[in-house]
Task: structure prediction
Amino acid sequence: MRHLRWIVWCMVAVAAAGVAAGVTRASGSSAKPQSYYLALGDSIAYGVQPARAKPTPSASRTGYVDVFAARLRKLSPDLQVVNYGCPGESTATFTRGGCPAIADRIKLHDAFSGSQMKAALGFLRAHPGDVSPITLTLYGNDWLPLLLDTCKTDVACVRKRGPSAIASFGSRLKSIVQRLRTAAPTAEIIVTGAWNPDPEHLAQLKPIYRSLEASITRAAAPSHARVAEMLPVFNPPRNGGARLCAFTFICSKGDPHPTDAGYRAMADAVMRASG
Result:
């Protein structure tokens, strides 16, 4: 898998396309945009794309968060976006703090100190009932260390070690979504799903990525969060390699982050998942 020489801000997952996205809906949350849209997660939430220098907010304005927000403003013109997305964030650092982007002095869209979880809960408590939707994109920096560092992209190793890693990840994600729901009982929460960024092992790793996607759905369900599935968007049954090359930079630059077309497809999926 020579393509996957990832930069430190490895992707995390979000979304589905305007072409064939699967969407899991959960009831119990308000679909009407409120005063604020809160975006949480990793480099995908930030809107990272390949660049020579460190990511900057001004160079990261075509992410799915930006596209989704532009569509929401057609319903609520005064909607304000608070984007705490932190490149390199995992479910572990999201809760305890220590996002690599902060250590590397990367300027965030909306700065915070401590953990992203603490920042999100603080914002929700300061604006009760005024925040909806909330989007959450986490999985890449939990999953890719196993895929690349532990297993060195060996399919047999991923199949063997994957279920345990997925179970641990799912447990952490479930706790995060539950804490967000407690702080925002009526907000619409949308969690973005996972996809396989490796064009050389799409078929071989299909079952394990289905399991990863299922774990995200299970983590979201108890809190009545919605899930925008990404597998049908980035890894469709037919022409999956071509789609992945068009929707990410993995084939052109060896980078798994979405292209503008990929981010738009993610926003399509998130919009459909939204009420």
Observations:
- The first strand starts at residue 23 and ends at 24.
- The beta strands are 23-24, 36-41, 80-83, 131-137, 189-192, 226-228, 248-249, 255-258.
- Residues 1-30 have pLDDT under 50 and may be disordered.
